[in-house]
Amino acid sequence: MNNSLNTSDFSRELSLILRIIGSGSWREEDLEGVDWKELIRLAYHHRVYPLLYMRLKERGCEGIPSSVMDSLYSKYSANVISMLRLSSEMEKINSALMEHQVEAIFLKGPVLAQQLYGDLSLRTSKDLDVLVSPKHLEKAEGILSELGYVTEDEKTLGSWKRKKHHISYVHPLYFTQVELHWRMSAELPGASFRTLWDRRTTVSFSGRPIHYLSDGDLFMYLVSHGARHGWFRLRWLCDIDRMIQKKSFNIQKIMEHYRQRKERHLAGQAAILTNRLLSTPLGGDLEELSRNMSAEELARASLFFIKNPVDLSPNGDKDTLAYYKRYLHSLMSRKEKLSLIMDYLYPSTKDVSLLPLPKLLHFLYFPLRPFLWFWRYVFSKEPVNNG
Asked: Closest Cα partner for 103 from 129, 133, 128, 134?
């Protein structure tokens, strides 16, 4: 395995977290000079505090201040309650969708925690991601509305399904967040819902069947999701580590998939990061994926997001956002770059906000698109993307 990944500038606190949640081996001298408040802050930012707490508890807390263990336990306990509430809401949504014959696949959330970690309490989740067939999208939206969920996502133009891949919902009373997906990512359609459904895995959750992605599809989805976000949360790398160590997917089929889509660099990046940061052992095929120059470059690039808690929202630092934009571009295949260029040609809700037109005249947004985009670029202080 190539060990060229330079982590020498990682903080003492981040390095200690990686040792604890990764190999699980650390020495007393590793605890010297640790800023415990910073360690707790990083553990929370990376959403690995439940795993960190449990590893420390299992190993013994000698050398760890009791106030640190108390703080981690408090966050761990709060996560237990949060995951139980999210599980209850997942079961409610799943039952409602089944009752209306809407086929649904849960992408992450409690079912992922249960299947990868064997315990809801060891992984955090802020929302539920549900994938439905595009033909059932409106029906699923109606069901969520009946359950009390609301959305502020705008759908004023007919191109919204092309430019997006999910709609965000929130429950005003329970504050549960749900992302309703009709495809896996915004860049390319990927596998059809029918293909994913035919390969799905079904488990019993509180006595009711819950459908989620097959292990192979889940691995590819988690790799893609983590890469697109720069792996800025270690939680996502922990998920990959669990999947690799479980050896529950057919790596040969996955290798073939990445060859066909020319995305070997994505899986290679994940393999390099998990091996180097979490000491995840790699088999022959994953080792081969990691021997890829593009994958190594991506792994090095993502260290910036891992070691520096950054704000990647439109309100974040301009230099950071510019770096992130270049990073995202380096992830894309030629096909994805072409798709992105095509997206620029389609109007967006920002165009509607800038120049409201009656619905009968919406077709004019296509020829007006370059001028509206230029206007925002020149006169708006917000960064302009393909919106």
From this structure: 133
- Using DSSP's 3-state secondary structure scheme, residue 35 falls into coil
For residues 259 and 265, what is the distance between their CA atoms, to the nearest angstrom?
10
Element (H, E) at 93: helix 66-99
Residue 284 to residue 263: CA distance in whole angstroms: 18
pTM of the model: 0.88
Please give the full DSSP string across 99-147, using - where no structure is assigned. HTT--EEE-STHHHHHHHHSSGGGS--SEEEEEE-GGGHHHHHHHHHHT
Instruction: Report the number of secondary-structure helices (H) and strands (E) in the chain.
Output: 18, 6
The span from the CA of 270 to the CA of 268, in Å, is 5
In the block, tokens 């073939």 appear at 256
246-255 pLDDT per residue, tens: 887 788 888 8
Q: Which residues pair with 203 in a beta bridge?
A: 210
What is the residue whose two structure tokens read 């974040």?
Answer: 316
Burial of 156 (0-12, 13-18, 19+ CB in 10 A): middle
β-strand pairing of 208-212 with 201-205 = antiparallel
pLDDT tens sequence across 253-281: 888 888 887 788 999 999 999 999 999 99
Q: Is 140:180 a contact under the CB 8 Å cutoff?
A: yes
